[in-house]
From TrEMBL:
Binding site for Ca(2+): 141, 182, 187, 220
Protein name (record): Phosphatidylcholine 1-acylhydrolase
Transferase is among the record's keywords: no
Cofactor requirement: Ca(2+)
Subcellular localization(s) per the UniProt record: Cell outer membrane
GO cellular component, one term: cell outer membrane
Family, similarity comment: Belongs to the phospholipase A1 family.
InterPro entries in alphabetical order: PLipase_A1 (IPR003187), PLipase_A1_sf (IPR036541)
Quaternary structure, from the entry: Homodimer; dimerization is reversible, and the dimeric form is the active one.
Cofactor remark from the record: Binds 1 Ca(2+) ion per monomer.
Catalysed reaction, written as an equation: a 1,2-diacyl-sn-glycero-3-phosphocholine + H2O = a 1-acyl-sn-glycero-3-phosphocholine + a fatty acid + H(+); a 1,2-diacyl-sn-glycero-3-phosphocholine + H2O = a 2-acyl-sn-glycero-3-phosphocholine + a fatty acid + H(+)
Top-rank lineage group of the source organism: Bacteria
Membrane topology: Multi-pass membrane protein
Length: 306
């Protein structure tokens, strides 16, 4: 059950969303075909250069995950005293964090090998970074609360098959390292090896991922897979110049270890490439430092690349 302040936040969010929806839909109808920047988001074939018609060469930097800046993000339970599961690595005392902060995400990729493994696959290098900024916390000199760094090596195979009305476009594997670059007691990091598959149908795109964590001698966050999860599904839908997408993660376990998260996003047009962005998150692992901390967040900002 949500407490009264959270209910109020959700009511404000819903009212704001309902007020903006007809405006953004009108903009999409009025300007949708007048300029290339107003066209629908790219297909998986374009984004991942899955055929020769879309191949643009190696070492060309393109976008990977969405790039956005959240001006204000409210948390129902700010993690003022982060702790690792089963360890005594705690801060001397809780930090006086604000419940409202800003957040931004940057993400790029580049193809480094084309037509490897008997001419069937491409190899990509990717890098994503998320930062959580206590910009409104004047008492603490507006510090960055948490920054997560996520380099990846991705192997992609173009495919073509049908499943439940969707067309399978790509399958592959990826090695991912994620860390916050901090020292004890708030160091967090993990490595994982995963498989993925991408599907399309009209304006719908679906990406499924699952992974196994690769062990290490120094474990700053034991049990992280039981909180952040072992599998992910991302579903997106484009309506004119608007995009709706959801990211769900789950531990793939039952009982008390049935945990995960759900992130809902809506981007809507403002002008040219400049879009508004509303994000709602509920669950564990909103950032690495929060891997075993559950909260609900609501954020409002701008999106530059979807």
């Amino acid at each position: 059950m949500f407490s009264p302040p959270i209910v109020s936040i959700y009511r404000l969010f819903l009212l704001f969303a309902l007020a903006l929806f007809p405006v953004s839909l009108s903009l999409a109808q009025d300007h949708g075909d007048q300029d290339w920047v107003f066209k629908n988001s790219k297909s998986l074939s374009e984004l991942w250069e899955l055929d020769e018609a879309h191949h643009r060469g190696t070492f060309l930097i393109t976008s990977y995950k969405p790039v956005y800046f959240t001006l204000a993000k409210y948390s129902s339970d700010t993690n003022k005293d982060p702790k690792s599961e089963g360890l005594e690595n705690t801060l001397p005392e809780p930090v006086a964090l604000n419940v409202i902060e800003s957040k931004f995400q940057l993400s790029l990729k580049t193809k480094i090998f084309h037509k490897v493994l008997w001419g069937r696959a491409d190899v990509w290098a990717a890098y994503s970074q998320r930062a959580y900024w206590q910009i409104y916390n004047e008492a603490l000199s507006r510090p960055f609360r948490e920054t997560n760094y996520e380099p990846e090596i991705i192997l992609n195979f173009p495919v073509k098959f049908s499943l439940l009305g969707f067309e399978g476009k790509m399958i592959g594997a990826a090695f991912t390292h994620e860390s916050n670059g901090r020292s004890e007691p708030i160091s967090r990091s993990w490595n994982r090896l995963g498989l993925h598959a991408g599907f399309e149908r009209g304006q719908w795109q679906i990406m499924f991922k699952n992974w196994v964590r690769l062990g290490g001698s120094n474990d700053d966050n034991p049990g992280i897979s039981d909180y952040i999860g072992r599998a992910e599904a991302k579903v997106s839908y484009d309506l004119k110049r608007q995009r709706f997408y959801a990211i769900a993660r789950h531990s793939m376990k039952f009982g008390e270890k049935s945990r995960g998260s759900l992130q809902l996003n809506w981007t809507f047009p403002i002008i040219k490439n400049f879009s508004g962005h509303i994000q709602v998150f509920e669950g564990y692992g909103e950032s690495l430092i929060d891997y075993n901390h559950r909260q609900t967040t609501v954020g409002l900002g701008v999106s530059l690349i979807n």
